[in-house]
Structure formats: C-alpha cells, structure tokens
Amino acid sequence: MENPIIATVDDLVKRLRECSAHARAENDPNISVTEPYISLRAPSGHEIHGIDQSVKELFHQLHGRIPNEAEWRDWYQEENIRDSVYRANPHLERTPTTTLQAWENMLEHFLGTRVFLSKLLHEQAHRRELEAARTPSNHYKEIIMGDVFKNISNSSIINRSSFFDALSSLEAKSEPDLMAALESIAGEVEASGNKEAGELLEQLMEELSREDPRRSLIQRSWEGLVDLLPSVAKIATATAALGKLLS
Domain locations in the chain? Predict the structure, then answer.
C-alpha cells in the first residue's frame, strides 16, 4: 500500500489529465466545470489546499519551518507569483488563462509536488531508520510513514539500497510516474515473499536507474515479473508508466 499523500496526488494528477484530454476532444479550452464528465473529475480548492498543507506539514516536521520559495511553492503561491509578474509589469499583455491552461499549469505543479513529496518521505524514512538504530527496542517497521517504505526497510526480498538508489535516479530525471510505478511494484513484490521476483525487480531497478535505459531488458524484467506475480499487471500506475516507456 502506497503512502496516502502520494496516492492522493496520483489521483489528482490522473483526474487533471482526464479533464484536459476531454477538453481537447471537445475542442473547448474553456469547457465548463459543470459539464457532467468534468464535474466528477475537476479538483476542488479544498482538496488542492489539503495536499499542499500536507506537504508543508511534513516539511515542517523534518526541518522545523515551511519550505521557502526556492524549495517548493504551494499552488496558491504559484498563482500569486504569476499575478505579481503582471502587476509589476503593466506593459505586458496578459493572455486570459483558459480552463485547459489552468489545468495544465496545475498538472505541472502537482507532478513537481509529487517528486518533492517523495524526496521528503525518503528523508523521513532515513531519519527514522537512524532513530530506530539508536533505539533497538523500537522496531523501525512501527514508525515508518507508508507501508511501502515500512516493508522495504526490513525486506529480505528487495535490496533496499538499490530501491532507494533507483528512486533517487528517477527523481533526478523528473520521472514521477515511474517513481510511483516502482514504489507500487516493490510493495507487491515484498508482500509476495517471492525471491525470484525480487531478483527480477533488481534487474528492473538497475535499468531504470541508467541514464539510457535499455527497453529490451526492461520489457524482459517486467514480463518475468508478470509471469511470476500476475497481480503486478493489475497495478494501473505501473502498467501505464512502463507501457509509456516501452512504447
């Protein structure tokens, strides 16, 4: 099971993409948010604020302050900065933002937020592991936030170092979709207890970490995992991200 904040961000990103695709299909960049298809998917201000607050709270827990503008900005701060550019430069001609453009701006923001959040969770996991090492009676698995990180920490199936190295590499390449896929696959492999699946995952992580991943080896590792654990093929984030990479 993935971290709940990550899951919420992934759901929001999925819905934003659906809204944008629908607006393009209808050839209506200013499509109404009351349109039935859109009304079921368009994000509300309340949930956007909730995600951004969760990120700030996690950052505050780790660093004792909220992130500065150079580190990360919430959605409303992003919007205010855009507005301030035009207020400071009244000679600039401002093209009205369409509903479609607003969604695309928001999508870019939350993809970046996912990478930032994943980095914070890795930092939290590392700190708590050190904390647990200093306090042997306190089991690490009881304090890690998010089941994927909890399981990986004491895994006999997955090489934890390779797992986090692969995530760091994907983060550096700005691949939030593949990060989400890898986290989900790792959770499924660990839950299976299948050592052969762990070896195939190791091969997959090694390729994903490369500057220029070899598609044939990624496909071979993925197909081997699906043969051993058919359940991984049902992970939507994994099949979508790897399918895009292999297409």
Answer: 4-127, 155-246
